[in-house]
Amino acid sequence: MTDKTILKIEGLSKYYPGVKAIDHLSMEFREGEVHALLGENGAGKSTLIKCIAGAIHPDEGIIEISGEKFTSLTPQQAKEKGVQVIYQEFNLVPQMSCAENVYLNERTSGLIVNTKERSQKAKKIFEDLGVDVDPDREVGSYTPAYMQIVEIAKAVSRNVRILIMDEPTAPLTVNEVGLLFRIVKQLKEQGVTIIYISHRIEELFEIGDRVSVMRDGQYVKTLNIGETNRKELVDLMVGRELTESYPSRKVDLGEEVLRVEKFTGNGVEDINFTLHKGEILGFGGLVGAGRTELMNVIYGANKLESGQLYLEGKPVRIKDTADALARGIGMIPEDRKRTGVFLRMSIRWNTVISAIKRISRFGIVNRKKEQEIADYYIERLRIRTPSPDQLAGNLSGGNQQKVVLAKTMAANTRVIIFDEPTRGVDVGAKQEIYQLMNQLVEEGHSILMVSSDMPELLGMSDRIVVICEGRQAGIVPKEEFSQAHILDLASGTN
Amino acid sequence: MGDKFWKFYRKFGSYIILAAVFLFFALTQKAFLKPANLMNVLQQVAIYGIVATGVTFVMISGGTDLSVGGQVACNGLLMAAMMVYWHIPVPVAILLGIVAGIVLGCINGAIAAVLRVTPFVITLCTMLILNGVALVVTNGYPIYDMPESFLWFGQGWIGPIPVSVIVLAFVCLIGWFVLSKTYFGRNVYALGGNQEAARLAGINIVKMRIMVYGLCGLFTSIGTVVMLARTNSATATSGGNYQFDCMTAICLGGITFGGGNGNMINTFIGVLIIGILANGLILMGVNSNMQQVIKGFLLLFAIAMDAIQKRRAAGD
């Protein structure tokens, strides 16, 4: 890291109707540093990076890159100044080869693309990065970790000076995170500035040089990573004292609620477990181990090939999702925005959609009941919104997740599947979701929870089923909980 | 133009176009505002207003139906043949025709849902098939001379109002009611808003798709009854360009392709815009070929305004 400032933001503001997404923001980024941006969802991080990348135009302020001042940038200008962004949703064409993706959008001299030369150039970049990626293989056949490396290679091929990474470790497994960090450090040594956005505070201590905290669209503070700690950062983010722990609850396991025997289908094989009343049964494993697939089968969203499901001891066959809901099984899907909420519909609409038949008479929706249900859940789940008519798409991640929970609870479910309950949810809302889960089990509900967040898995579960490559690697009772033990089972080392 | 204008346009865009078209003809054409002429406008839009109600459901559910014209042609021939050749009583013929319409619609929906192919392509196929069948069966000859009692649906009056307009009003009301008041309506929006989320929210999307197209078939067959009674003849081409006329009206009314938004009022306004435009241009002496050009430009204008408005709302 040098002391040279490469990117300077001065008084930058961006307003949307009713919201100041960022508000007179000023900060500096140095050449060759890993500069983390930290803030709850809705703090304005995304808006800031979009302004820097030229994807949106700020209303006020100046962006200065390598000494050149801009009041707003076009995506083209940003690229010319060496700004590259790797968004959470990759910008790759899965059917094309890695090399083709690296040089996508690249102008060619002449009409014909020299595939061979490109392939060789891409290979060189991958070698320089120290990764084993086949430039001629289809991107879509790689795991998300490698897709991310292709994105990085793409940035490198365009002479990146400022690389912005939005939650890069979210889709990665533990080993892959190590690989990513190694590449980030290497780029840093080459003088590339990395702006790093992550909700996982721990990893900042491993990879970051400095960290800037944002809150409600405003700049709070910049700190050297070496001179701060997790608690200080969390306090700065939320602007209030916050106990970041897992709320305890009275565990009182009741009778058997749900049991699966020799469950096979949708990529999982021979799964056996029992869920009790009032229990949170956690599911651990590496990303892609088949946990989500298993949940989808239980919920009736995918076909069961063989095996048997028992509800309260009676064998049942779940025909489809409607059948699952009717039998009291609900699911909060992994991908909230794509499959959880209806973004363009109101909170009220979302809340009752799974219960819509029940609150209708002769096919006509009872508006009064609908309003009551929506008001009840907004209050109970503390969904922060000016009105139930607010579109779900306008809510922060945490509040959206609460809307999905409301939708599932409103359908009178007794067994709720939480697939990654707090992914992309900020620290404050996380706590609230944990407390809600505790309340649910104390009231006699039962929960199946898939989580890739190890502290969450250990902190919330009563027992943990570990899945490895579609098979059950073991069931770990609370007394034997330890990160090492779970990881051990998950990576199939025994 | 300022933010205020666009906010206003976002809410009332289609109303503005309707008002503009209405005012333009009211001010330039003396005959336009006469009650008889205004009633004439409604009578002219009745048939495809009815069909457009069905297409509205399909479009809100995220689909399209290119086959409604073919359905009108085939169903019209079937009903006409039942009454004229086979002397089936009028009420029975109508009932069977409507059942046939529902079945045709359900077939569209079932193929699209089971094969998981975009409805656009499936209904393109059924459009070709139905239009072709109509030509093959009739060899191009029309069936005419429906029973007198049947013609009442297209040509009769109740007091000062044509029966066809009453049917239109009735159908629009039912459409509005089902879409905005029933849980079936909710599920239509869910399906169009996000099909996968709808499935995970416990909605049987295959069944819904079939029902939505079945409903479209139902409304289309009601439109067919009015068409048949009004023209007193069934030909292979009497379905005309209903699919495109309906889509034009629905888009002008402010419902976008992709689904999940809009309501019956949008469709009704769109239908009125097209009706007034056609009527006013005739009064002005503009020929029908030129009318098409103007309709096209108006739709392009409406879509452009909508796109600009959306981009501004997205903050760009």
Automatic annotation (TrEMBL), chain A:
Membrane topology is: Peripheral membrane protein
Q: Say if the entry is tagged with keyword Nucleotidyltransferase.
A: no
| Record-level GO BP terms | monosaccharide transmembrane transport
Protein name (database record): Sugar ABC transporter ATP-binding protein
Read off the lineage from the record. Bacteria, Bacillati, Bacillota, Clostridia, Eubacteriales
Q: Which UniProt keywords apply?
A: ATP-binding, Cell membrane, Membrane, Nucleotide-binding, Repeat, Sugar transport, Translocase, Transport
Q: Which InterPro entries match?
A: AAA+_ATPase, ABC_carbohydrate_import_ATPase, ABC_transporter-like_ATP-bd, ABC_transporter-like_CS, P-loop_NTPase
Organism in which the protein naturally occurs: Anaerofilum hominis
Q: Does the keyword DNA repair apply?
A: no
**Which Gene3D superfamilies does its entry note?**
P-loop containing nucleotide triphosphate hydrolases
Residue span, ABC transporter domain: 7-241, 248-494
The record's SMART domains line, in alphabetical order, gives: AAA (SM00382)
In terms of CDD domains, this protein maps to:
ABC_Carb_Monos_I (cd03216), ABC_Carb_Monos_II (cd03215)
Provide the GO MF annotations for this entry.
ATP binding; ATP hydrolysis activity
- Principal cellular location given in the protein's record: membrane
Q: Which Pfam families match?
A: ABC_tran
Provide the protein's localization.
Answer: Cell inner membrane; Cell membrane
* GO cellular component term, pick one: plasma membrane
Q: What's the domain of life for this entry?
A: Bacteria
From TrEMBL, chain B:
Which InterPro entries is this protein grouped with?
ABC_transp_permease
Q: Which UniProt keywords apply?
A: Cell inner membrane, Cell membrane, Membrane, Transmembrane, Transmembrane helix, Transport
Quick one: where is this thing mainly located?
membrane
Q: Does the keyword Transmembrane helix apply?
A: yes
Q: How does it sit in the membrane?
A: Multi-pass membrane protein
Question: A Pfam family this protein belongs to?
Answer: BPD_transp_2
List the molecular function annotations (GO) for this entry: transmembrane transporter activity
The answer to whether UniProt assigns keyword Transmembrane to this entry is: yes
Q: Name one GO cellular component term.
A: plasma membrane
Q: Which residues cross the membrane?
A: 12-33, 45-64, 84-107, 114-137, 157-179, 210-230, 267-286
Where it sits in the cell: the answer is:
Cell membrane
**Range of residues in the leader sequence:** none
Q: Which PANTHER family match?
A: ABC TRANSPORTER PERMEASE PROTEIN YPHD-RELATED, ABC TRANSPORTER PERMEASE PROTEIN YPHD-RELATED-RELATED
- Protein name in UniProt: ABC transporter permease
> What organism does this protein naturally occur in?
Anaerofilum hominis
